[in-house]
Amino acid sequence: MARRCSERGTVISFASGPAVLPPEVLSEVREAVGAWDDSGQSVLELPFGGSDYAAIQSEFEADARALLSLPPAYRVLLLQGGAFAQFRLVPLNLLRPTDRAAYVETGYWSARAIAEAREVCLVAVAAQAGAAIPPVATWQLPRDAVYCHVTGNETADGVQIHRFPALGEVPLVADLTADLFTGPIDIQPFGLIYASAQKNFGAAGLTLVIVREDLLGRARAEVPAPFDYTRQASTGSRVNTPPIFSVFVAGRMLKWLRRQGGLAAAAARCERRSRMLYHVIDASRLYTCPARAADRSRISVCFHLPDAAQDAAFLAEAQRRGLWHLAGHPTRGGIRACLYNAMLENSVAILADFMREFDETHPGRA
Ligand SMILES: Cc1ncc(COP(=O)(O)O)c(C=O)c1O
After folding, report:
1. Which residue from 86, 133, 155 has its CB within 8 A of the most atoms of ligand 1, so it is best to mutate?
2. Ligand 1 centroid to 338 CA: how many Å?
3. Contact (CB, 8 A) for 90 and 194
4. Contact criterion met (CB below 8 Å) for 220 and 96
5. What is the mean pLDDT of the chain?
6. What is this structure's pTM?
7. Which domains occur in the chain, in start order?
8. How far is CA 16 from the centre of its chain?
9. Which pairing describes strands 153-154 and 159-160: parallel, antiparallel, or unpaired?
10. Biggest distance spanned by C-alpha atoms of the chain
């Protein structure tokens, strides 16, 4: 029998997503799936036009607005299709085919966003860097750029933008799939933010889009109605059946985050968790971290051993100890520990101890 290595059971998952959820949230979800209220209906059976779902959605929105201090000029849209769909839907909603947008390329996910955007608009790569965030002073924004797209956390590469710049007239559009709700943000420079829920605030199925009102009304005719920001804004995200279950789970996650002290406390937890691992990496003979130190991610900690065989040995031994899903992104190799909002500090301490022990008992690099 495997030993229990967390309050949840015999394994700790460091997966890039879906992520672990807090036990309290899982228990609320279990209860609501069994019976939503005294009527015996399950949360899975609530009609989307009814008052029960309306309350679930409006509470979610109120908590999101409170956590992010969103001014009224920003609309909150609850969509589906994941962040990947937004890579193309953002330009389709905001730009004509001859309009230009600037993109900052910082790793795997921003490259995917650029490839999708290139299919439907003009793209200028304002700056490009591997394993680092290019300094804002070096970004070259074309004068006609309608927006500048950034990726808050490069989940495959282990780099993160720790401070979002204000670019004057050019609004930021940001993929915050791996970092929304992990710390306070100043919303003012942003025209639009999008994020899938399954890493930091719930279960797969919900894609949150937060858009400044003045950017609505531009969708191209070919955008299907459920992905048209303007139509979704004018129907309260009910053009068609919303992902009710995922909205419910996300609502419970936001309440949990508020009970835990809000986003400043979430940021402090991210800092403490990631510091435990970077501390071991920096003191070790075996591990190297490709990311530039100042840009290291507090969400996805990526590192390598001296060769692929040692990466494989590390992963096999980790798996045997119940430390699961630590393989790096398939295009990057190495090791990756994702430390999303519900990751317990104690779980990270167990991984840090294992890393230290592996470093001490295995031959280092030549
Ligand atoms: C930064 C980032 N953007 C986008 C995506 C794609 O998200 P989804 O699979 O929900 O479309 C991911 C998934 O890992 C990601 O990490």
Report:
1. 155
2. 13
3. yes
4. yes
5. 95
6. 0.96
7. 26-259 (3.40.640.10), 261-361 (3.90.1150.10)
8. 9
9. antiparallel
10. 68
**Which one of the listed residues 36, 52, 109, 295 is annotated catalytic?**
109
Question: CA of 236: how far to CAs of 47, 53, 54, 65, 147, in Å?
Answer: 15, 12, 10, 15, 25
For the question of residue 175 being annotated catalytic, the response is: yes
CB 303 within 8 A of CB 287: yes
Q: What is the pLDDT of residues 154-165, one digit of tens each?
A: 999 999 999 999
Q: Cβ neighbours of residue 132 under 8 Å, at least 6 residues apart?
A: 106, 159, 291, 292, 295
Query: Strands 207-212, 190-196: parallel, antiparallel or unpaired by DSSP?
Result: antiparallel
**Helix spans in the chain (H):** 23-34, 51-68, 82-94, 108-118, 229-234, 244-259, 262-283, 308-320, 345-361
Comparing 88-92, 103-107, 128-132, which segment has the lowest mean pLDDT? Answer: 128-132
Ligand 1 binding residues, C-beta < 6 A: 16-17, 82-84, 109, 151, 153, 155, 175, 177-178, 196
pLDDT, tens digit, 9 for 90 and up, residues 7-43: 566 899 999 999 999 999 999 999 999 999 888 899 9
Separate counts of helices (H) and strands (E) for the chain: 9, 13
How many whole angstroms separate alpha carbon 106 and alpha carbon 127? 8
Q: How far is CA 291 from CA 48, 214, 241, 298, in A?
A: 44, 37, 41, 11
* Dihedral, CA of residue 329, residue 333, residue 337 and residue 342, to nearest 10: 10
Residues 6+ apart with CB under 8 A from 37: 52
Report DSSP state, residue 164.
Answer: P
Kindly give the pairing relationship between strand 12-13 and strand 323-324: parallel
